[in-house]
């Protein structure tokens, strides 16, 4: 399930892409499939191991495009193990809402991004996320949970404060918003029949991509899309705010 529009982000063969908070690698896999040089980074050992295993399986099966490369590392978003201006694209999908010091995180993104490079930041959309918080504390108030809800203009302002120029934005995953409302209403640790049935629908949609659900989600995304995606560019010749630092290349 991809949240970022790779055509809008302009990921092409030879592009260096940093996938921050890669989780189990969903965005890293697509960048690799497009022939990019991918650095997938996460704090979790299990997530790093899973992403590395699957990328390795793609390469072992001979399915990696010519020129595609990958590296999977554990790292801290607040102190990225990369030199200044070393990547062309950054993906930070559903990450910033977990980070108390998002200003430092955004400054690090701006630091490692090359002038003219683009970052795609995705966060839970304010309206659907506010409903989840109202229905369930367990949804967000846990270790590693969501520490804030972003309004669109706030996220754009914080990107600008980090030295990035916010551009286009869109919403994604409208079919997922009611699913999480239902889970929060019944208890996020419970899976009654209704939750299991809805989950099967989402899996069917993900694996089969049937046209009725694709059309429905495209129409509903502007209203119910659970994720907000904002693209921002580092202006050519504009350094990231703060002192520049050299870090070991991955």
List keywords for this structure.
250 residues; 7 strands; globular; seven-stranded mixed β-sheet; alpha/beta; 40% helix; single chain; 21% strand; Rossmann fold; transferase
Description of the structure:
By secondary structure, the protein is α/β, with parallel strands linked by helices. It has a domain at 16-125 and 142-172 and 226-234: Rossmann fold (3-Layer(aba) Sandwich). Helix content is 40%, strand content 21%. It contains nine helices and seven strands, in the order H-E-H-E-H-E-E-H-E-H-H-E-H-H-H-E. The chain has helices at residues 6-9, 26-33, 45-60, 102-112, 126-135, 152-161, 176-186, 193-208, 211-224, and strands at 16-20, 37-42, 69-74, 87-93, 113-124, 164-172, 227-234. The chain has a seven-stranded mixed beta sheet, with helices on both faces. Strand 1, helix 2 and strand 2 form a beta-alpha-beta unit. Helix 5 runs parallel beside helix 7 (176-186) and helix 7 packs antiparallel against helix 8. The longest helix is centred in the N-terminal third of the chain and has 16 residues, at 45-60. It is globular. The protein starts with 5 loop residues before the first helix and ends in a 16-residue tail after the last strand.
């Amino acid at each position: 399930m991809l949240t970022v529009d790779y055509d809008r982000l302009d990921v092409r063969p030879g592009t260096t892409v940093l996938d921050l908070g890669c989780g189990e690698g969903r965005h890293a896999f697509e960048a690799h499939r497009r022939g990019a040089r991918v650095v997938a980074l996460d704090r979790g050992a299990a997530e790093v191991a899973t992403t590395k295993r699957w990328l390795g399986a793609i390469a072992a099966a001979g399915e990696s495009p010519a020129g595609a490369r990958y590296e999977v590392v554990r790292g801290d978003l607040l102190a990225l193990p990369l030199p200044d201006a070393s990547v062309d694209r950054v993906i930070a999908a559903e990450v910033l809402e977990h980070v108390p010091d998002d200003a430092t995180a955004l400054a690090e993104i701006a630091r490692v991004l090359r002038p003219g490079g683009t970052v795609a930041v995705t966060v839970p959309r304010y309206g659907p996320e506010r409903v989840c918080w109202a229905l369930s504390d367990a949804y967000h108030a846990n270790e590693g949970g969501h520490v804030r809800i972003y309004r669109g203009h706030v996220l754009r302002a914080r990107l600008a404060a980090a030295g990035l120029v916010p551009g286009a934005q869109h919403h994604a995953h409208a079919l997922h918003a009611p699913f999480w409302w239902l889970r929060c209403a019944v208890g996020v640790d419970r899976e009654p029949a209704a939750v299991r049935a809805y989950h099967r629908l989402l899996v069917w949609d993900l694996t089969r991509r049937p046209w009725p659900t694709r059309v429905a989600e495209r129409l509903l995304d502007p209203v119910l899309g659970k994720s907000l995606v904002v693209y921002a560019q580092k202006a050519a010749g504009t350094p990231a705010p703060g002192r520049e630092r050299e870090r070991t290349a991955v």
